[in-house]
Amino acid sequence: MTTQRNLTREAQRNDYPTPPFPEQPQAAPGLASKMIPRPDHGEQHYRGSDRLQGRKALITGGDSGIGRAVAIAYAREGADIAISYLPEEESDAAEVIALIKAEGRQAVALPGDIRNETFCRQMVHSAAEQLQGLDLLVNNAGRQQYNESIRTLSTEDFDATFKTNVYAMFWITKAALDHMTQGATIINTSSVQAFNPSEILLDYAQTKACIVTFTKTLAQQLAKEGIRVNAVAPGPYWTPLQSSGGQPMDKVMAFGASSPTGRPGQPAEIAPLYVTLASAECSYVSGQVWCSDGGTGTL
Ligand code: NAD
Ligand code: MG
Predict the structure, then answer these.
(1) Ligand 1 pocket mutation pick from 40, 66, 164, 269 by most atoms within 8 angstroms of CB
(2) Residues 82-138: pLDDT tens digits?
(3) What is the value of pTM for the model shown?
(4) How far apart, in whole angstroms, are the C-alpha atoms of residue 5 and residue 2?
(5) Which of 211, 221, 267, 279 would bridge 69 by S-S if both were Cys, CB 3.0 to 4.6 A apart?
(6) Is 224 exposed, middle or buried (0-12, 13-18, 19+ CB in 10 A)?
(7) How do the domains of the chain map onto residue ranges?
């Protein structure tokens, strides 16, 4: 019976949308609600099994994409959740807050710009205060704006990408450690771009490599305190990051075509890695980068 159900769920995965996708430009940061087709964050099918019962999680960029799928999965595994996001993403965030509450878990909304150090500190302390603790941090928010050449890549763009993807992770993690004790876990979202960079992502790919090194060094520092630090490296996933300037529109319309599966991953397909890394069952896993790229075999 169980085997039959698993086979059926596997077959559903094979029905996930394949390119070509419609033209759908959005201004950054973009909304999941405007994507065609709508991404699958696991809303209809993720089933938890108490793997994160009673845990308190802060997920940056938890309004959409991979962060939303992680928020849904963590809530269904029994965690209380705070999500951070940009104010212009309020409508996406409201959907996630409702989904977390529907599981009977506490949901905290923290809009603001993480390129600001003061906001990062206040945001983390507010999450810990409202959740009455903090023992899971998912540094997942990210900025990706493609640019064809170093000659046209401005200092402002370079700075915004590093502030969002690298500095904010540093500030948020530092603040979170004020609240974390033995058993706490930090998970950072890197990318296959850290290992196989695209020529049009000069700034973004560098930040994703920084995240790998940050993860490996911090894992060594915090091991003695019993705090684990890991990273996830997604391949191509169907999220607003890509259609709001992350790729040229012709690449968005063919997104995932070059992966061996011939389609992009859906956020629901990567959330289980974040659940497993967060779970106490993985108590000897730290300083690692787990990849999910649809068969390319990046790592
Ligand atoms: P997404 O657009 O759904 O999520 C990114 C989130 O980052 C946004 O929702 C936004 O809330 C947040 N964010 C961006 N700038 C911010 C700022 N200044 N202040 C506060 N929040 C800010 O897209 P996603 O693809 O789910 O991205 C999540 C992570 O996955 C990112 O780190 C991204 O680099 C990484 N990633 C994505 C892919 C992919 O193909 N989608 C591949 C590899 C890595
Ligand atoms: Mg978003």
Answers:
(1) 66
(2) 999 999 999 999 999 999 999 999 999 999 999 999 999 999 999 999 999 999 999
(3) 0.97
(4) 5
(5) 267
(6) exposed
(7) 42-292
